[in-house]
TrEMBL record:
Coiled coil spans: none
Family membership noted in the UniProt record: Belongs to the RecX family.
Residue span, RecX third three-helical domain: 158-201
Stored InterPro entries: RecX_HTH_1st, RecX_HTH_2nd, RecX_HTH_3rd, Regulatory_RecX, WH-like_DNA-bd_sf
Region (Disordered), start-end ranges: 1-61
Keyword tags: Cytoplasm
Subcellular location: Cytoplasm
Protein name in the entry: Regulatory protein RecX
Amino acid sequence: MAGRRARTGRGWDASPPRAGDNTPRPRRSRRGATGDDTGPGEAGAGVHDEATAPPPRDESEVAREICLRQLSVRPRTRAELAAALARRGISEETATEVLDRYDEVGMIDDAAFARAWVTSRHAGRGLARRALANELRQRGVDGDTASEALGELDETTEAQTAQDLVRRKLRTARGEPDAVFRRMVGMLARKGYSPGVAIRAVKEALAAQSAEAAEFAEQIDADALADAEEDGLR
């Protein structure tokens, strides 16, 4: 074997140990430049991460972003925005500061919100003042602001809307006049109409529908029924 070049290398092509040579081969250290056990390129990684980590965000900035996202979907009341901030863990002090500023610049206006809500929901869904008042209360609009907005919806307009709703429903209504009458009154009640407005609207609409319905409508004492319904609600 003399004269042959010795095999060199490490790993899979390393020369086998000579007979009788019990000297252990040195193990490759995985220690990095800092002396710890990190591999190549890992030394100082913690220091690098700390240096490049973004600073904590200002709570006011986060609160403003939350409000802007909420307002981009639809107008909100101050109470709705306050609830959204609380759910995200914004402190009450920061929330008050941000919402006060939004009040100042007109981005929050509960009175304008209430007026727009009443107009939209009455025209689009045919809701009466009673139902609209409940919706405004659920959205945190105070009683005085809600009353002012609801005052723009007068009794004549409300009664006309009730009649229009009944006439549209009667086009597809089926059944005996008394059953149809009860369904129509119930529909208006769910939309917030008082018993008096609902019963009168249905009676007038039935009177114009057919001879049979008109005969049934003639027998309806709207005032007596309305008083009985009101007593039942108390």
